Please model this.
Amino acid sequence: MRRILLLLIIATPLWADDKPVSFMRDVRPILAKNCFGCHGPDEKARKAKLRLDVEDSAKNVIVAGNVDASDLIKRLESEGDDRMPPPKVGPALPLEQIELVRRWVKEGAKWGRHWSFEKPTRPPLPDVKLANWPTNAIDRFILARLEQEGLKPAPEADKFTLARRVALDLTGLPPDPELVKRFLDDASPNAYEHLVDELLKSPAFGERWARMWLDLARYADTKGYEKDLGRTIWRYRDWVIEEFNRDLPYDQFTREQLAGDLIAGATLDQFLATAFHRNTMVNDEGGTDDEEFRVAAVKDRVDTTMQVWMGLSAGCAKCHSHKYDPIVQKEYYQLFAFFNQTEDADTADESPKLAMPTKAQQEQIAKLQAEWMRVRQELYTYSDEFKAAAVKWEEGARNRAGWSKVKPTAMTAASGSTMKLLDDGSVLVQSRRPARETYTVTIPAGTKPITAIRLEVLPDMSHPRGGVGRSENDGNFVLSRFAVKAKTKDGKASDIALASAMADFSQDKYPIDHALKNPDAKKHGWAVAPKQLEIHQAAFTLAEPFTPGEGTDLEIMLDHQFEFNYPGFSLGRFRLFLTGDDTPSLTGELPAELRGIFILPPAHRTAEQQAYVLAYYASLAAEKKPLRDKLAAITKAIDAVPSPQTPIMRDLPAAKQRVTKIHNRGNFLDQGELVAPGVPAAFNPMPASAPKNRLGLAEWIVHADNPLMARVAVNRFWGHLFGRGLVETQEDFGSQGQPPSHPELLDWLAVEFRAKGWSMKGLLKTMVMSATYRQSSKVTPELVKRDPMNRLLARAPRFRLEAELIRDEALAVSGLLSKKMFGPSVMPPQPDGLWKSAYSGEKWVNAVGEDRFRRGLYTYIKRTAPYPAMTTFDAPSRELCTIRRLNTNTPLQALVTLNDAAFVEMAQALAAKMQATGKTADEQIAHGLQRALVRPARPEEVVVLKELYEARLKHAADHPDEAKKLAATPELAALTAVANVILNLDEFLTRP
Amino acid sequence: MNLHHEYARYVTRRHFFRDCGVGLGAIALAELRARAETPVAHAPGSPLAPKKPHHPAKAKAVIYLHMAGSPSQLDLFDYKPELVKFNGKPCPKEYLEGKRFAFIRGVPNMLGTPFKFAKHGKSGAELSELWKHLPDVVDDIAIVKSCVTDQFNHAPAQLYLQTGTNLLGGASIGSWATYGLGSENQNLPGFVVLTSGGKSPDAGKSVWGSGFLPSVYQGVQCRSPGDPVLFLSDPPGLDREGRRQTLDALAKLNKMQADALGDPETVTRIAQYELAFRMQTEVPKVMDIAKEPKEVLELYGAVPGYVSPAEGATDPRTLYKGTDPTIANNCLLARRLVQAGVRFVQIYDWGWDHHGVSAGEDIPHTLPIKTQQVDRALTGLIKDLKRTGLLDSTLVIWGGEFGRTPMAQNSPSQPFVGRDHHPYAFTTLMAGGGIKGGQTYGTTDDIGYYVGEDKFDVRDLQATILHLLGLDPFKLTFEDRGLAQRLIGVEGKAKLHPKLLA
Model:
């Protein structure tokens, strides 16, 4: 009996001693820890062909009911050389553990599966004595256990504490004073529920829980490794916020993130959800093997999926079969095979990506599109005058001559390049490729009036890149000037003014206009990349129609002055054309369809044909130009709406799918046996209807037969509300993890979660509505001693707020908090010089305006240099999935909240609020305390802070210049010191 | 000793009072203050409280100078006459087949060192002419020429060496050391990082991160200029007296809270604020190297208050000067920190990646400059530690994350000459703290391509450091992702080299 008592104190699970020993709960963890290393699932490490994790094999050393005949017990208790575990491997088992194994053998050595691998069933609600305490099922389980231990629950916390607690828990922000007031004034029995419902509706809810989820998703704003360059993936963060707010059922939340791209008719949002697994790192360091880091990312996806949804660490099965849990190496690579088919391949551009306009951007685009439609409608609405003009135009157009080709009579190149006239009338330039080049080409002007000159450029295989230009770099040209002179028979020359230019295509930033009017001939001109291999047209309209006299020539100057690393940006082959038409078009050719209509007399045309003629005229008539310009501007505006290119998951086409082989000892260069996608045999099989891809895997995870998924999820939410999970090792539900403190409660919650349609809001509401949650956190020394870890929940837990919440709370109470949601991550001020990445020019630029005061989850996360105030408070740098943060309590944390300029600024803002609200110092101090702590200030607290206030006031009077650095007036400086204290109170930093 | 469980217990509920046998509420504020002011160690139960080593330690502290980018062993330590003979000849095929290089493609030419070598000291160790001062202490150091690593790119190789894994997320050596041993001085961080060369190491702050270990064990970067430790200075307008007054008020209010709710965590918080207050005074004192006598400054070549133009430059490499005293200042600071009880000082100097592709990163010009910067500083550090009697208990390490190829990366017609990354053989220096100095350990082949005798894996280096600190590298573990994680990796390939140990 003494042994058993000892056990109860030492062992974490607090089982009553009248229950029979359970193999899975009590014995297996002992064997797993001490024996499975050599006698477990890992075939390579196995000794003496003995397995203690499998009943058949273990029965060789265990005789049910007979301790003395069981070799296992003998070897455990031996003090000789044959003791197990061998002295070289580890110490002897503690007596109380051997005692447990003895009892289990004596009781018949009944086997069983690990508790968490059995599907949960809804347990009956236990009977309790204190029947009026429970508000829901949760309390029945908690209370039954307390009564078993002879303990009583704590009284309900006061309303202020409740309001602050539930607001911080559900929204990550302190409650709005208005909300608190409504709660206090609400005398109905449902007052608390009303409060909870309001908080669940708040948009801040999604931000708070996204914060939690982003640790699991290892969300960050950079790619990791050496260069650690920025990545645009914040649209995924916003998706998480929105879905939490929308209360997307957890099974669908799961499906979309794992395989949204494979859902039939996937929406843009479902593609966006798959960015969950694009948060893996990418290595851009020069000389690294992309395949090595693609494989590392795929393994991370396997590990993260298993951790987040199954609560299992599969990682060790990369190299060898799992030593403790039933995942053999082959099964690891079967899981790997599901994820091994996506297109991404550790490339710097992070493809595949999709444009993911935000809701606001989508609306903006829709608005512009509507405007475009409206203008278009106007363009095609015709006045009588317009129709009359169209008839006139048609007459002219029918009779127009169009362009006529002219053969040059002389041509020279300033550099001395050879110029050859080809049969088709084009000029081919050859031989030298100088940096600069000027061509002068003479053509006969004829005698008809001229309104425009057309330049046609042609690609030619004799040029270095086979393009229209002679550049060795890319076959392009840059025409810096096009000019024309008229030369009469007697040799008199005069400039011909050009009014405008148009081209069928111009390179971005190299418009045709530059050939007429060039801001800097060394840098600008007309060019055509990336269409250097196509024929292009440019037409130059004369300012006045020119009627040449007999024997007059035109001298065309084509100038190239562009400077670049490579020479030869000059035209390679070109032709010239002239026209006398009033409204010259580029090709001069009317569409065949139009010419066909022109043949018909107007009376014989159909309405459609008539409309075509008018629409064609509208596309060139001068009076419609403003509308056409407007349409062009709107198109440009639509293109200019940023829609962030976001990395997504997308599978390779069937023909290009990869084969998956086992990586021997985890080395991707040493591959072994071929494997197909599949799930570990120890769990529910894949549903028959499920495809063998990620979507099928997701269906397997969310399937009702999966014993883990719901338990792992409810445990995580519980952990966030109660400081620790019912299974404390939230990351490990396997045999090495801790058993649940309240197994029936865990199962009840898991079954309920599924039965209620996977509503995360519903689950959280059930938890926060419980009397267990609403208890006071006050604790007696006896209770601390009795249950130091508060596993029994005879009081509410109290724990330090998370990094982001500390920032958010301080911003909120100081009145600085920006409520702006979504968008690119922001860079609130941090000390200079923290970003010195070796090969990245990216810089931290302190945000201005309200972006300085956004909630913590919007802060830019650079993996190799995360925001220091956050990491000091245990925020991870998001390199890998973090299942739970371990809270520390260090002096460096004190330095952040005392001295970080951001927190000093919050203290100053809070001081200003205090001053504005109270008349006397006492009132101001009391107000500050209540703003921060929600509850009214206590007189003795005000006394302490008043003392500080007066000391600082006196100091400010004595050192006015010094005090000015803190605040404008001595009073405000003293209040700032007080506010600095308030923002550092243990109570302020702690969830009550 | 199961540190993981101990830590979990700590995190769960710091057993501050139960361990002290004092009931809650019975402690007076004054007593708390007094406890915080005892300048020895952290409160019991604190994660940084000193812990007993696995076995008696040879080294109490470590100063690790990591030359990020990796210096050329062939131009500094490992003299190869054969390589000089074959200078400019194409590299034999057998050295290239089946090999992965970072940048070399095709068949490169061999590159003999342009520098002269001579033997020094009683041990007759061979050193390049670039070392002017190091010969003075050559009999105190072990020159390990047979180092090998698994990684051939900077970030993965730095991570592999410093955190035991080439991927991000591992725990750095310094954080393992403070996790295993705690810290001797509560007023200073247990693990301090100093940088020079104008850039962070290629793998960023992750090389001094705590990875899966609790964040309390991560390295604290001491910087200059600016706050030596982030957020150390009181805000403008609040002097020390004012800070004292605010902390007094804070402690009184927190004490009321502790009395009302009985949470031991509140009491711990009061103590941590007092520690922070002490740190604010102690850290700048230790950081102030101007307090050192002139002859000590001379010894290192240190110049108090110097701010290098390389710091914060977009490309600092072209700004390097041989006389830049930044790393000298850091070496002197490291000695002061160790003297004050800091467990692990990590110095990173960036700019040793001498490929020879452009100015500021080649062997004929940049390597002499970088060597000049570190030569007197490193020599001075060893002399100074010896002088102050600290060398016996301080392990000093100097080296890069891998070596450099015996082949030139570029064709000789280009103006710059350099070498590519080489994981198959490189040199690391070790001295003090349980190392048998005055020896050259391990050999390489005639051209310095492969290691010959006494192969010294990066894993062995990690194991040696922990071993000398009194920790068993095989038993120092932390449960993460279902594995008992170790610095030397779960597969445990590491071994100790008895000939290296004193």
Q: What stands out?
A: The longest helix of chain B spans residues 264-287. Chain B touches chain A through 95 residues (CB under 8 Å). Confidence is low (pLDDT under 50) at residues 1-42 of chain B.
